[in-house]
Amino acid sequence: MVAARAPSALACASAGAYAGGAAGWGRDPAEVPPAAPAPPPQAAPRPARRAAFFLPEPRGELQVPESRAFGGPRHAEKRALRPARMREDVDEEEEEALRAICEKAAARAAATFTAAMLQAPEPRTPPPPLRTRAAEAPPRDGAAKAPWDAGQGDGGLWGAVCLHRVAASPAYIRPAGGLAMTCSGGQELGIDLETLQQRLEQLITLLPPLRGKVANMRPALCAALLRDPQQLAQRLVQCRTALPHVDAANLFGQQPDLLLKGTADLVASVEAVARLLGTDGATMQALASKHPRLLDGTAVEEVLTEMRRYVPSKDPRQALLDDPTWLLRLERGPRRLGPHPDDAC
To answer: Basic and acidic residues compositional bias: what residue ranges (predicted)?
Structure first.
């Protein structure tokens, strides 16, 4: 058995140094409490910001920098640059007199302004009536009034249109049939309002889609449709017999002037456009019911010509049959607009 060796002097010195460094000389390291952790660094408190919209600035004397104050260095430099005759100091009495003069002038200006504001406005003369060349132009025939004269009664075009629009207002609508009384159409036909009301009811009974279009219809067209409702009924029957695939109500409701054409003319138009587009009569009748403009052979030829120029990769006839709205997009109408400007070049 090996005997325990006594600690050497160096070991005792090392232990004492450790104990002295950790908890002081002469103390046991086990008796020294552990050091507390250092607190985390805290940011410096931000200065409180005053709400500028709620806390007004304290009102005190205006603090002027010394360089800008009266008598300061900057002011002295400016005074040194002035001419000698302007460097003299102003007398206090003279300054008081000048201040009094300024106050009196300000009071006089304020009184003048107040009196001008309280004064009643002067009556203004109305401007002269507008003079136009059309209103001052002489009549065409020398006897009748100009057609744009709205007050000439029944004889003028503009007067008839005005009467037609006024008669189509809700004040002239009767509750029995909800029809607008077209005064100009009745005046052109020479019938009274009662007869006009009856014929309007007969027309709406034949073609219900015309109920909302009578008020916006041209007076001449309205008068032609109301001239003989019985004849219109016969034309509708003949059209349905000759063109069985045509929706007469939709066709004549969109384009009422087709009622004034004879049945033979309608059949000829349908056959001509069908040959132009290379389709059968039944298909053409169905398309014409939805797009009455297809019955205009001249317009269809124009559109086919334009489609050959704009869409050369497609068959224009088949494209127009698939989408008849091409007729509205490409139709120019030389009969209404004149020749194409490119043709003159």
So the answer is: 74-88
Q: Are 277 and 284 in contact (CB under 8 A)?
A: yes
Round the average pLDDT of the chain to a whole number and report it. 67
Residue 23 is predicted with a pLDDT of 43
- DSSP per residue over 179-214, as a string? -B--HHHHHHHT--HHHHHHHHHHHHHH-GGGGGTS
Q: What is the number of structural domains in the chain?
A: 1
What is the largest distance, in Å, between two alpha-carbon atoms of the chain? 159
Which range marks the domain in which residue 191 is found?
146-227
Report the pLDDT value the prediction gives residue 30, as an integer from 0 to 100.
60
pLDDT at 334 over 80: no
pLDDT at 115: 75
> Any residues with CB less than 8 A from the CB of 184 and at least 6 apart, and which?
154, 160, 161, 163, 164, 167, 219, 222, 223
Domain-embedded: residue 37 = no
Helix, coil or strand: residue 173: strand
> Residue 295 carries which DSSP code?
G
**Which tops the pLDDT comparison, 250 or 33?**
250
Q: Which of 13-22, 198-207, 223-232 has the lowest mean pLDDT?
A: 13-22
Does residue 195 fall inside a structural domain?
Answer: yes
Contact 203, 226 (CB under 8 A): yes
- Is 0.70 topped by the overall pTM? no
31 in any annotated domain? no
Cα distances (Å, whole numbers) of residue 154 to 157, 160, 179, 190: 8, 6, 22, 11
* Helical (H) or strand (E) element with 16: helix 9-23
Residue 218 counted as domain residue: yes
